[in-house]
Structure formats: structure tokens, C-alpha cells
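Session log. Operator J.P. requested a structure for one protein chain; no other inputs attached. Running the standard single-chain path with C-alpha cell output.
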Amino acid sequence: MNKKLLHYSQSCSLHLKDNFGRQALLLFSFLFLSFSAMAQGPGCPNVNAGPDVEIDCGDPCVDLTASFLDTGETTSYEVTSIPFDPPFPFTGGTPVSVNTDDVWSPAIPLPFDFCFFGETYSEMVIGSNAVISFDLTNNPPNGYCSWSFDESIPDPNLFFTTIFGPYMDINPAVTGSGQINYAVFGDAPCRTMVVNFPGIPYFGSACSGLDLTSQVVIYETTNVIEVYVENRPAGCSWNDGNAVLGIQNQDGTLGYTPPGRNTGDWSATDEAWRFTPNGASNVVFSWLDSNGDVIGTDPTINVCPTDPTTTYTAQAVYTNCNGDIITETDEVVVTRVDGFTVDLGPDQELCEAQSYDITAEITGGNPADATFLWNTGETTQTITVTTSGTYTVDVTIGTCTVTESVDINFNELPVIELGDNIETCFDVPVILDASPSNYNPADATYEWSLDGVVIAGETNPTLTVTQYGMYSVVVNVSDCEATDELTVAQAPLAVSLGDDFTTCFENTVTLTAEAIDFDPTNATFEWSLDGVVIAGETSSTLEITEIGVYTVTATLGSCTATDSVEVSFRDDLEVSLGADFQTCPNEPQTLTATTTEEGATYQWYLNGTLLANETNSTLEFSVEVGTVGTQTYTVVMSVGGCSGEDSIDIMLYDVGQCVISEGLSPNGDGYNDNLDLTFLNDRTGIRKLQIFNRLGTLVYEQNNYTNQWRGQDKDSNDLTTGTYFYVIDFVGTDAVYGAQATGWIYLNQEAN
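Structure written below.
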């Protein structure tokens, strides 16, 4: 038999749907009511804390084990076989592909976000060849659903983003065929989309009498997929009998199938498979105690309850791909079955500094047969306690131990603090506050006294003080009393003008009477200079222009305070002209007065004589030829009313005109005894001096030369009288000679 690839018209599909809708509406409404009773499917978020448990004194601890559906992100899946127990009927849902072969259904909105291979989908299409696809682009609604294939999952030639449930060529157009249908069951957060293929015949006469019955269930939140196959016979020759059960991703590169259920001619009866997302887990499991606190995160936990009944809660928190958080819980009750009971009495509220006796009263047992162990370490039936806490006792009779606890709370004494003794001039209100820091002030009573006498009518937590003396207060809360007292005395008023200081009055100088621990705006001030009152100066600041001793007297209420400060001229002004030096005749020089002071003025002197019009910080000069002796330059720097000075001595070099000598007579008379090039070394720096005889032979050499040559050779022997030639290499470039100087010098040795 040949099967043609048909194209269905829109009008035909609509006609079939309309006819079916009128015939099946009543039946579907009836069946849907039945489906609604089966709202919870096995792939829903769930947790089971296990059965309730009883324990006794001989075995006071028990393991609790919870089970929950563990799921993950939909980046990968785990395929598992599950019992064939379809959670929903195969019939009664909304029909699709009625009497139509090889067609995709209209777009079907999903009532919940469904995650599949890492993407989120909100609609689907059902193919009449037992497939469900979320790819409405490549598998367009009402479009052609291909039947021919021989590829295995995964393969890009198979439908993208599709559940194959199982995919094979079936024909719902055969008369008497079951109807492909879908239905939504359950309530958020675990609704299910159920798609049924009930009794759909195989295509073609070669497969006569064979039909497929299967159900696909997809779950909200967990994104689990279940495929239930009631009947899928093998042995049909059409399309080689091919069928495939599984899922495939968005580009056909990843897919999952159960063992033996990839493309081929296989048979299945009453089998079911679950595809569970197993990427990064999206479930957080925890055990909670009766207070809701987390006590464990493993499904199995060992507990040792001490109360007669204790409830534990298993909790599984699921995070869906769309961010929804679903919390599932289940409780298990652990009951202790003991032979006797212990009573420590009710919890107690007592006052601090008291004591309380706790007795372990036994019912159903003889105290004489019992041993006692308190969490304080004591072993008597009665203990005396003085501190707040939970007191626990283990009472053992035979092999049975019962644990009981009681809370004893010693209420704190009121914590009050009037503060340190107060010194005041009553220039501002003085308010004492006895409000307890550990209680609501309104819950306390107050009694104030002055010098031991109760102040009538003063019952508030605060008291405004107007007299000097000793104040005390008694504060009572629930018969717990606290007292405190302080002394209010006249304050020794203090005012400060700061330390004595020096100034040049180059800027405005203002004295400020710093008020110590009082508000200066409430005080009056009187200023004086060297004991004479300065009229009209009554503020806390005074602008001054003279040196002397300044005194201020501050008056506040009945309190006064005085302070003085001496203001002097500065004597620490520093200015520097640098070190003394030598110079050549008529060589330009510049002196610079260096100082850290700002706004200074300058006056220059030469040998004590004022240099007119020289008022800058620099002085340009030169020493004339023939000047004899030391020239002393002095600068006087002034800042405001202060001054400082420095002097420098300047002399001409011993070498006459600062030229290289042409004659040397080393006879020890102090004149021309050596070749003195100090002026060149100071000016430019001499790297090396070389002396050659008239034959060009190097007879003397000296690095870093100043004045070492006195007519000797390299071995320190005296050279003979005669003309010699020199080469001088400079460190830099000399202003006169350049980088190198050459010339001759006549050596006249003293005759022996």
C-alpha cells in the first residue's frame, strides 16, 4: 500500500471539529467531573515523612526516613521504568485530529509554564501519529504531521522539541477508531496535561486489527514526563513497523529513550516510563522540628525526643524554571510510651536575687527507686536555683529514663543610671532620669528624695532639679527595687584661651574664649590687656593687634571663670642664603633667600651697607676685579612685625683672573707652587688632567683633578724644567673652554 503525503484544507479541519464538538460536548462534561477526582499524579511535587512512630524508654531514639520526588533542571533527563498504573482515564478529554490522519492539532495553550530541555513553553500541538511538540514553527498548528521515518533518537530529521509517545503511523480517520484527546487535571502547583491515544488503529491494510493505546502525562513544577503504553503490538510491515518512544531537544542533537524503545518494530504491553529532569537539583529537602527550625537535610535523620509527643516535618522546596517556589510538607508524630511521668511544676517568674526550689515529682513510680541527674550536675530530687534558665532532669527507674524541663526566669532588677555627680550653674535645666533601661518606664513606680527627704508629688521617671544637694530615687517593677543617687553641686566654670603663642600679626589674630562644658551664648565676657579692661568687648571672641597678656572673665549664672594668654612676636623666622662660596671676578652670581614663610618682604646689605631698591627674594651681583677680602651679603626677611636674617661670605678664587696658569714654580713659597684649577672644578667639574712632555709622552695623569700637580711625574718624581702640555677633560661643557681645554705650561724647577 502506498500512502500519499496529504495536505488538509483549513475548512475541512474546521468542519470535522465543529461536528464533533456538538456530538461530544455532553459526554465530555460528564467525564471531566470524573477526571477531576484524580487531581494528584505520581509526578507531582511530593514528600512523605513516613508513618507515625512509638518509642519507649529502652530505645529512646529512632530513625525517621522521608521520601520525595527529586527533580532537577531540564538540561538532562533520567529515564526510569515505573509501574503501569495510568493516573488518568484514556478517554473523555477534548478530541483532536477527529477523523483526520497525519495532521497537527491547532495550537493548544498550556495552563502552566512547562520546561523542556532548558526552555519554557506555554503552548503545544498534538500530532495524530502519537507525538506532542512544543515547536510550533517547524510543526505548525493544523499542518501536516509526517508519518515516514527510520531515524533513531536523537536525529535532526525527527521532530524537534517533541515527546514521542510512541511515534508511529497510526490512523484516527478509521471508522470506529478511538479519539485522540487531551485534558487538564489537578490544581496549581501540580496541574497535569494529559494526552491520550486510545485504540488508534495502525495505518493500512497490512496492519489490520492492530491499534495503539498510550497516554502521555506532563507535570507542572516538576516538568516530569510519563508515557503509559497499554498496547503496542509488533509485526506490522507498513513503514517497517517502526515506532519510537522518547524525547528530543530543540535541534535534534540530544534525546532520551528507554532501553529497547528506540526506532524499530517492538511490542509493548502494560508498561510505563518516566522522564525525570536530572540537571542541577531544584529541590531543597529539610527536616523541621516542632518550632519550624531546620534540624537536618538528609532524608534519614535520627531523633531522640523527650516530650510525650513530638511532631517532625519533612519539607521539600521545589523551584520551578519560571522562578515559582513550591513547598511540600508532611508530618510524622513520634510518641513516647513511658512507665512513669515526671513533673517539675509550672514555669516560674521570680525576682532577681531570690532562690527557688525545683522538685522532680514522680507519678507512677517510687522516688526511692529513682536516680536523678540534673543539667546542673546535681543528683538530688530537689535542687535550689538562683539564675534564670531551663532546668532539665533525667529521672531513671530501672531501665527507663524520663526527661523533663522547666523554665525558671529571675526577672532583672530595674537597671537605672542617674549618671555621674552633676556640677552646674543652673544656666540650663537640670533633669534627672531614672527610666529603667530593661523595662518600659511606664511599668515602674518612682520615689524621689533630696538630702534624705521624700519630695512630695514627684512620682515620674524624670525630675527637674533647681537646688544643690544629694538626690536619690527608688524604682520598683513587680516588687523588684533598684536605687541610685547623685550629688548636684555648683560647677567650677572653666574657660580656655589656649596656650601662649607667638605671631607676627601678618593676618588677623582673633582670641576665642572656649567655653568648657557650658553654652557661651548664655554667658557674658570681660576682656583686659595687661590688666586694663578693654571697653566694649563683651563677646566670646576678641580681635587683637598688640602683643601682651590678654585675660577673659566668663560669667554664667553665679559661676565665673578666668583664663589668660600671652601673645608675643615670633622669634623663629628662618631664611637661608646657602653656604659661603668663591667666585671669579665679574662672574654673574645670584643669591636666593630660601624660606618657608609666606608673604615675606626682603632687604639686602653688602658688608653692612643697605643696598637700595633690592627688595626681592633674589639678588644678582658680581665681584669686581681687584676686590680684596671677603664680601659679606646679608638679607633681612620681614613677616608682619617679625624678622629673620642670614649672611653669606663670598671671596675671589686665589687664582688671579680664573685662568689656567702658564707657569709653575714649585719652590714652596706659596706662589705658583701647584697648578690650581679649583675654579674650573667648581664651575664645570674636571674628569681628568693629563700632562705631556714636549715629545708627546704622557708624564702625569689625575682623575677628578683640582690642584694636585706640582711638577711631578706619575711616579711622584720631579720633572725637569721645561715646557709641558696639558689636556683637561671636563665633566660638563665649560662656558669658556667647552668640553676640553688644552695648552702649555712652563715648569721652572728650583735649582739644587
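Operator note: The chain has two helices and 58 strands.
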